[in-house]
Amino acid sequence: MSPFNRLKPFRVVLAFEYLSYMRNKVYIGITVAMIVLIGIGLSMPAIISGVLELGLADPGKADQPGPEDTVHVIDESGLLADLDLLRQQWTQFLFVPGEHADLDRLKQTVHEGEARAVLVLENPVRATLIERRFQDSFPAELAEWLTERSRTRQLADLGLDDDAIRQALAETEMVQVETVAELGKATQQTYFYTYLLLFLLYMTVMMYGQLVASSVASEKSNRAMEMLITSTRPLNLMFGKVLGSGLAGLTQIGLFLLAAAGFYAINRAHWAEIAFIQSVFDMPPAIIGYTVLFYLLGYFMYAFLYGALGSLASRTEDINTSIMPVILVIMAAMFISIFGMLSPEAGWLAVFSYVPFVAPMAMFVRICMTDVPGWSIALSVALMLLTIYATGSLSSRIYRLGVLMYGKPPRLAELVRLMRQAGR
Amino acid sequence: MTLTVTGLKKSFGPTEVLKDVSFAVEPGQALGLLGRNGAGKTTTIRIIMQVFPPDGGSVLFGDRPIHGQNIRIGYLPEEKGLYPKQKIRDQLVYLACLRGMDKAGAKKAVTGWLERMGLADTLDKKLETLSKGNQQKIQLALALLHDPGLIILDEPFSGLDPVNAQLLKTIVREQAALGKTILFSSHQMNYVEQFCESVAILHQGRIQVSGRISDLKRQYPRRSLQLRFHDHSLPADEQLRRVWTQVPRAAGLVRSVTPAQDGCRIELGQESDRAVLFAALAAACADLEQFLVVEPTLEEIFVDKAGDVS
Description:
Distance between the termini of chain B: 36 Å
Number of strands of chain B: 14
Oligomer: heterodimer
Low-confidence stretches of chain A: none
Largest interface: A-B, 22 and 27 residues
Mean pLDDT of chain B: 86
Strand order of the largest sheet of chain A: 2-1-3-4
Number of helices of chain B: 11
Number of helices of chain A: 18
Largest sheet of chain B: 6 strands, mixed
Order of helices and strands of chain A: HHHEHEHEEHHHHHHHHHHHHH
Structural class of chain A: mainly alpha
Low-confidence stretches of chain B: none
Helix content of chain A: 55-70%
Strand content of chain B: 25-35%
Mean pLDDT of chain A: 84
């Protein structure tokens, strides 16, 4: 047989598996639903501003504070001569002076929602704010404002003039410069999209891996398996199935990325002010290439294991138990990589970027966030390819044995013994 | 080409399923592999199909061992099932292509065989919409559509109604006439007897007996006789009693007498006593209308060879 003919059954399996996905209603449904979600998500600012415009057009909705926005102020410190400064600062509240004797009653009105808050200034450096439930940044802003008030007062008491006080209270402006920024790998720029892509990698590897496992287990439970393994070599079935599912996954990811890019282009103006969203869409094109590469490497590394473990389950209900070990490994890899994002230059992350099963995610983080030498990427990819080859051939052997084993999944020791036996 | 199975051995853990299984199937012949549940029929067939290797022994087709996909085998497994949610045409073409057919040839063969099975209108239906019997016919079509030289059918009758069993019988006969080598397993003796000339009875991991059914029957002692008398008004044992009084010696040869339609059935102690009894009856009973030597049925042979409780 020529090598071309040898590959024929593999291509037949691959085409059948891939087309099965393309015809599968669930697959199509999920793809369409995700694209719709991406569309809605990226059009959100446009939708919100549209709704706001409608809201503003409604005269009843004028932004006037009502009685429920009342803030009772009990000033025992003498810090506030009157409440005008407060009123200028927070126009959405009604500031009303109060007496300490009334504290309990005022507290009750706050609790019942008739007033927003009670502010008690005990002395220039101690204040108490009472709200029914803290809901926004008002307490923090208020504390900062009061601090400035108190300091200004103290400095004025020492005889400083307004300019001197302003200088004394001025905050140091820190301009941060990272040298990796010139490579486009500054932490701020990269963190968000690295996180997003890492998560995408994790989700897709997990999702398509499970599809492989359940596809194998369903062939076993509907008894198509015996027809299949007597028609061609298990290696063809395993590689065809894994590659077919992988391509289906790639098709889906491709569609998602396209949809995201398309909807972003439409809504570009609305996102102009949000830096981290921009950082995602302005990521270096090479990163997209690496995303695809590491998706493929990670997917194959795990998909073979998923396939092998799926072949040990007799029924589709048993899959979850069967594939638990792989899920744990993927989760561990994910946590290591997320932790690594906090210190992407760390030596331990570099080590993990060569460790099989962790490497696809760890190396991806390093590439996104740091300057990794080419030989290092090449070495990691080579190690991953070796691992894929090893898991691929190991899995085909487990699969060969597993597919006709019904009943309780075999223990590890038994599996090794059977594999030795079959290997003769 | 001849399928030759020699000295197959197979154990699963501590259980020795096949101890020594040897038989041969000639081309143009259908051999029935018979055995009780758990006798090792499916294990034997799976070894021939290379689902797993034997611990010992060999399987040859012609003079070559079966290896990889080197010969085209049509296989109907015991565990029958395909993709329930796929269209029948799609999955049959897929499996035919996996066995080396090209797509156009596969499509043509699928259409042809489904017409033959009377299921042409199901081509674009999902498999799960068909009845169990029709699903099995689909699988039978799948076993045959790549024109295999060796056909192996594991329990092909299970789930088929008499009309479909007849269709299966016709198809198997046709395939045999084309010179195909056919092996099938069953424990339904009545079908087997109609289907094939030869059988091999597998019991506790060994072939107990094998050969042409007619030869097997001939080898079996024929001690059963069917008698019929002209005078239906008199019970058979009354007729016989008259014979015994005239030829007392004959009475001692008979082991048992069972009344049957228009006469009785007699079991002799020895096959050789037949001539003696015949002479006695001929001399003493003018009323005798029929003296028939009854062949053992395949079922009787099977129960005799594989019937002990294991």
